[in-house]
Write a structure and sequence with these properties.
By secondary structure, this protein is mainly alpha-helical. The protein has 5 helices and no strands. Helix 2 (18-40) runs parallel beside helix 5 (72-81) and helix 3 crosses helix 4.
Length: 94
């Protein structure tokens, strides 16, 4: 019988290191918040892209969840432009 490995989140399963998993989890959280905010605007993609200061194809990448196309820095800038405040909570792992 094969022992099944369990993970705290999907990024722990997909990424090679705990550091990469943590970075991807953070990017995912910020991207999800931005996407939800943009969808709540009742704006066209062109209007939303203009509001965020990006192109419409770039907005489409965001809305389609293409996380590998966005650095954490880029997502933090977009979050601010979307009217969101991102707070990072740092604590010991142990």
């Amino acid at each position: 019988m094969t022992k099944r490995q369990t993970f705290a989140n999907v990024w722990d399963a997909l990424e090679d290191t705990p550091e990469d998993a943590a970075a991807m989890a953070m990017r995912s959280d910020v991207m999800t918040a931005i996407t939800a905010t943009v969808r709540s605007w009742s704006a066209t993609q062109a209007e939303a892209a203009h509001r965020l200061g990006i192109t419409q194809p770039r907005l489409n990448d965001l809305l389609q969840g293409k996380i590998n196309k966005f650095s954490l820095d880029a997502l933090l800038i977009l979050a601010r432009r979307a009217g969101l405040k991102v707070k990072i909570n740092v604590r010991s792992v142990a």
